[in-house]
Each structure stands twice: as structure tokens, then as C-alpha cells.
Amino acid sequence: MSTRLGIDIGGTFTDLALLRDGTLTVEKTLSTPGDHSLAVMQGIEQLADREASSVRTLLGGLETIVHGTTIADNTLIEMNGARTGLLTTAGFRDELELRRGYKEDIWDVRLEAPAAIVPRRRRLTVPERILHDGRVHIPLDEAAARVAIRKLGAQGVEAVAVCTLFSFVNAAHEARLATLVREELGDDVLISVSHHVMPKAPEFERTSTTVLNAYVGPRVNRYLDRLVERLAEAGYTRRLGVLQSNGGVMTRDYVGETPIRVLASGPAGGVIGGAQIGAAKGEPDLLCIDMGGTSYDVSVVRGGKAPAEPGWNWHHRYVVGLPMVSVETLGAGGGSLCQVKAGQLVVGPESAGANPGPVCYAGGGEIPTVTDAILVLGILSESSGLAGGRIPLSTVGVEAAFEKYVAGPLGQSVEQAAFDCWRLVNANMTQAVRRLTAERGTDPRELALLAYGGNGPAFAAIQAQELGIDRVLVPRASPAFSALGSLAARTAIDEERAYLCPTSQARPEEMARLWNELEQRAIRFLEDAGFARNELTARYQANLRYPGQNWSLTVEAATSQGPSAASFVDAALVPTLVERFHQLHEREYGHRRAAEEPELTGVRLELSGAAAVPAPAADEAPGQRDPLPNSVRRANLGRGFEETAIHLGPALRPGDRIAAPAIIEDTFTTVVVYPGWQAQVDDAGDYRLLRSAEAL
């Protein structure tokens, strides 16, 4: 019997998805920001209670736990990471702050640069220089290095990033600096070296990624250590799988070397699950939206594959040069604060989070939130509560909060104020989607919308209507969909090594040596995760560019199952890669420069195990029926308050059709069927919302 557990920590809720031989059980609990592992253990206790089992029995029977987390993201959002120092080559002290001159909004003259993660007083340089071909131009001055390291120690650094020029070609100086840091500052200081974190050019991206790894590393590692310890004490005997930002799962030991790999791993799980469920339902092209309690995440899936960006990834205004599943995040969720600032209504990005939470949670919140607004509008109700009724909702204090922070300052009624908050947060999210799709040349009308997260289904249909989308998918597991999606992720390692030369000078035997080094390192971690080599699939790739280009394109060299040792490498390899590069460049950018000789910048290897397929399937064929509502209540779904049908999700079965206006109260989420739409329950028990012909 296969039993697997997916976990996703959000800013407001911690979600758990238990999959036992195709049977899915979803659980949610309020996050515990002081120590997120407490919420994880509380959620496991709730799962055990629902299964009439003990925590030890439940954990002891698990095949695996896969965990996505926003710890690294929250560290950057809250700017409460480790006190970090930077050691770099003399003359490159301000590389981090120059940022390539990049500005997120070139038209905003008031936009300030982000806070420097490492202030200039903790960015120190060392006399040394390695050339682009790996030759030592200036030997490392160890005496000067020790002086600089002691200065960092005197400033109380908890982490040190080491990033020297061209260390990805020759790491000798950087490795020696790491040894000196350990000798001078001891074992309690985390050391982040660029030839481990990001062994390739360009320089700014490598420096930024190495510094971010140092900054978030101590907090991520402390959290994972606490969680591993608590799980072991409670009876879990296997290794913890951690979802990475590239969409692959690896062990805690591997992630501990480069903790930055967990950045945005929580949202990545939802996109992976979305790609899988979309392909299964005949919708390989999706707009995935995840609206939780704190954030709104958007991603576009094409051809049933989760999108992965290779290196130019900006998160929270800082660049990460590692492969990441492409997700755009907006500060909009059920906990987003609604208030008037300088005479203007503002919703988010600040959030009430799990503590104190929205006013209606009766946890001490004073400023109204989006959740409070949709309670006033009748989309939520006191009688239903949240989290399967575990979190009661109360209108006590909600009207007073809206009167103080929104209605009073704007001279409105409380109901009008709540409706305007609903409209504004909806407009913010829709604009975020328009911006994302326009930047990528994507027409949202070509996509189906997949909505998940605790609040996604409550806004999905109205957003789809404004974007010109006529169909919406809402998985029954949408409240914990990112946790479920993490169970679909492959166990995978994706790493690369620099190799800089014109393709005419590339030596196939050197490429084979680099691929073999990557393969041996990856196998060590994957065998530790329980995979035999013959169970692994290897994708061998090379990075190429035209002379003068800053960015490379990744070209496929070969794919193999089982032991390979780069046996495909021969004299024809490089010419084949060059032709594939020309073709890829023409496909991506509309032209090729066939008369120019491309440059090889590095080799890349992805080694992965088989992907799991966690989506449960239903056996019964759907029989159409129009079920009667369980009740009726007054609600405003965009055209004023009117009597609205209320259906209970657990009572619906495949084939059921729900006409608008209606609200489906499912466990842990609310699906709103807006005017002009209808809902259908498909054969897997998931919801499909369709625009009626007259609404098109």
C-alpha cells in the first residue's frame, strides 16, 4: 500500500495532502510563523485524527513526505535573514549594488533600489585574480584575506558569501578563501561559495545568487533541521523530500548545501500539479492561479509542461541565477488588508497573515481584509466557517472595522465598501495576469484557467470573464493543491559546469569529463534518496550563444536511461549541437546567424527519477442531474445583493450541474458560480466552470 504526504507552508495556512492508494485526504491548519514546523506537526495530528490513527502509526506507514516551503521567500519579504558578509576580488566590491542598472519599472522615477542585503561595510575585497581561461594572474594574498575575514567577524556575521572572478573556471582561490573563513570564524558561520552555488557566468547574477544563498541559508536550514527532528521523534523513519524551485524533489542533505534552491518551491508544486491535471483533462495550455491567504501566484503552462526559466529569475527584487519554475507573485490574498491611505482605497500587499488574521477569525485582527469583505458580501457565512468548519467565522467587529478603515473615510456604507474592496483586489489580480501574459506574448483567451488555493475558486470565474477566458477548472483538492502537486514532482538534480570556448575549439572529451563529474555527484545524492542508477534518466545538455550575447540557450545533447557515462560523446557531437543551437535560436528569436561561430559556455545535466502520478481517478460514469440547493442566502456576486443558491460540495456527484448565481461550499474552499456561468462536476469529482453562450 502506497501512502505519501505532501506539505505546503503558506503565509496564512499550512496545507497537507495525504494520498493513500489513490484516495486523497486534505487538511489545513493555521501557519505558525514563529516556528513553521509546529503547524506541520499539528496538521499531521489532525490527519491522524481523521484516520482514527495515531501520529506514530501514520508517519511510520508513509512511503515519503515531500515538502514545499516559502521560508526563503518570507525571509526576503521580511528582510530578516542572516547578517551576511561578502568576500570578492579586488575592484568588484560594488558588483552587487550596480545590479546591471536593472529597474523593474523604468517609468517610475520614484522607484528606489531595493535594500542592499549586504551593506558596503560588509562587502570586502581580497587581492587575487584568475583570468577567463583559468590561469592565475594575481596569486591570492592570504594575509590580506585573513584581515578581511576578521573584519567580518568583528561585525558579527552569521554567513559569508565568497564570489571571486572566474572561480567557475578555476575554483582554487575561492576554495582556499572558504577554508580561511572556516579557520577564522569557526563552524557556526554558513559559507556560501559561488563555484558550488552557481558555477557559471555572468558575474552579477553569480554574485547575487551566492549572496542570497548565504542570506536565507541559516533560517532555511534551522527550519528543516527542526522539522526533520520533530518528524523523527514522532515516528517518521524515511528521508524528508524537499521540493526545489526548479520543480524537482531532493533530500534535505542536498538542499542544505544550497538552501536558495527552495525559493518559491511552494508555488512550484501547484504549477507541477496543474500541468499534470491539465494534460489529464485535455487542457494542456493553462493559466494557473493560486490565491491563498497572503499571496496570489500566476503561471502559464504550455503543452502540459511546467515552465522553467534557466537563470534570469527576479524574486522579491533580487536575481537568482538558478533554474526555477516560472511563477509571478502578487501580494493579494484572503488576508490582504483593506484600508484608505491618502484618500485612496488600497488592498494589500500587507497581510494579516495567520496571526492576528482577518477580523472575522476573532484572533485580534483590527483592520478589515478581503476575507472580511467577502463575508460581508455573503460569499462566506458565519454558519459555514473555514477549514471544514474548524475555523469559525464571526461578523462581530467586522462592520466596525470597515466603518473605521474604509467606509467612514470614503463616505460609503459598509456593504459598498466591502464590494469596492472585492472589485479592487480582483482588478489587481487581473492586471497582474494581463501584464504576465502580455510580456510573454500569450493571449489568455487561448488558455483554460486553473484555480486553486483556499481563495482562488471564489474569484476564478469573474477573473476569467474579464480576461476573455470561457472555461475554468477547479480541482476538488484545490485548497491544498500545491501540497498535492508536490507529490507529482520528480526526484531530480539539475546542475551545470562552465566550459568557455568557441565551438571550433571545444573538445568532446572535456565535455564528457564534465558531464561525468556532474553525474557522479548527482548519483551520490540520488542513491542516498533510494534510487538505483538504472532507475534514473539523464538529460545531457550544452549551453551555447552567439559572440557578443550575454545569455546562452540550452541545447539537448542526449537522453539516456540507466548507466551512460556520456557514452554518446563522439566527434560529431559539437557540429550537431551547433546546428541544434541555430535551429533553437531561430525558433526562439525568429532569426539565426549561420555565418557566425557560436560559443560554448557550459554543460548541464539533469538526472531524475520517475515522476509520481498522484491524481485520483473516479470509477463511476457521470449521470447528469440538476441538484436542488441546500439553502439560499443573500449575496452580492457583482450585480447587487440577491438570493443565491448554496450547495454543499461533498454532497455533489459526477454529472451534477449548478446554475448561476450559486455558491458551492466545499471542504476548505468556496467555489463561486457568477452570473453568466454554470458549474459541472466531472467524472473525477472536480469542477468545471463554463461561460454560458449569452455571456460570451
Key structural traits:
alpha+beta; Dna Ligase, domain 1; Nucleotidyltransferase, domain 5; Rossmann fold; 34 strands; 696 residues; eight-stranded mixed β-sheet
Counting helices, strands and paired strands, the structural category is alpha+beta
- Give a quick account of the main beta sheet: strands, pairing sense, barrel closure: 8 strands, mixed
Classify the beta-strand content into a percent band.
Answer: 25-35%
Shape-level CATH architecture of the domain at 81-216: 3-Layer(aba) Sandwich
According to CATH, what is the topology of the domain at 81-216? Rossmann fold
Give the CATH class of the domain at 81-216.
Alpha Beta
Mean pLDDT: 88
Broad shape: globular
Number of helices: 17
Spatial sequence of strands, sheet with the most strands: 19-14-13-22-23-34-33-30
Helix content: 25-40%
